[in-house]
From TrEMBL:
<feature type="region of interest" description="Disordered">
    <location>
        <begin position="131"/>
        <end position="196"/>
    </location>
</feature>
<protein>
    <submittedName>
        <fullName>Uncharacterized protein</fullName>
    </submittedName>
</protein>
<feature type="compositionally biased region" description="Polar residues">
    <location>
        <begin position="132"/>
        <end position="141"/>
    </location>
</feature>
<feature type="compositionally biased region" description="Low complexity">
    <location>
        <begin position="168"/>
        <end position="190"/>
    </location>
</feature>
<dbReference type="InterPro" id="IPR029779">
    <property type="entry name" value="Rmp24-like"/>
</dbReference>
<comment type="similarity">
    <text>Belongs to the UPF0711 family.</text>
</comment>
<dbReference type="Pfam" id="PF15719">
    <property type="entry name" value="Rmp24-like"/>
</dbReference>
Length: 225
């Protein structure tokens, strides 16, 4: 019973402090101080300053972010050695643990007490395991989106068509027939229509020889009369 009453009292003090955070900040700070003195534990919630118990509002504090440790070439070499299942020295193991356990830190400076509190984020190792977990909602959504992209579907259909075309022989492939009659193009005319100048000149000479032969025959006929 004593624990339940204590939890109820702490919950009441916390809710009351957040209720007075805009109307009376001093009353809210006193309620949060009372809450912490009863709880006997360091207050780690980001909405309240752990030093002066001031409820954080947009105009009474400043926020900065410290990123994770960057991937240096030296750490990259150690990661490659670990991926190749090679033995690592003690120094390399410590360096790798420091890189994997690095977190992004949020620095919050309170304007009431001018003190900065640190709030650590999630470790890099946990984020890597979460991203590779197939049961995670984000990874499942990425896999579904990748399966539904038209680009991948188009590639699959093209490869399927190509493989099918390779398996068939030229004799068994059906030919597509068109209902419209094929009109001859100007470039596909018969070769006999196009006459060369030499053949045209030869034809004129033959005509002249025929005319001269006809005239000679008529003269011979008249002389014979």
């Amino acid at each position: 019973m004593a624990e339940e009453e204590k939890e109820k009292k702490l919950r009441f003090l916390k809710n009351s402090a957040f209720h007075f955070q805009t109307s009376c900040s001093e009353q809210a700070r006193f309620l949060m101080w009372t809450h912490q003195s009863i709880a006997d534990a360091k207050y780690t919630e980001e909405r309240v300053c752990p030093y002066c118990f001031q409820c954080r509002l947009p105009e009474n504090h400043r926020v900065r972010f410290k990123p994770k440790r960057r991937l240096t070439p030296q750490v990259q070499r150690v990661l490659n050695r670990e991926a190749a299942n090679r033995t690592l020295s003690l120094k390399q193991v410590k360096m790798l643990q420091k890189y994997k356990n690095s977190t992004s830190t949020m620095l919050v400076t309170c304007y009431s007490c001018n003190k900065t509190s640190r709030h650590s984020g999630v470790k890099r190792d946990f984020l890597a395991a979460f991203s590779h977990n197939p049961n995670a909602p984000n990874s499942r959504g990425k896999n579904i989106d990748a399966a539904r992209t038209p680009k991948s579907a188009g590639k699959g259909s093209v490869s399927h068509i190509k493989s099918g075309a390779k398996g068939k022989s030229p004799a068994t492939t059906p030919r597509s027939t068109s209902s419209r009659p094929a009109t001859p193009s100007p470039s596909t005319k018969p070769i006999g229509v196009k006459k060369s100048p030499f053949s045209h000149l030869k034809m004129l000479l033959n005509l002249e020889q025929k005319q001269s032969s006809k005239k000679g025959g008529l003269q011979d006929f008249l002389c014979s009369l």
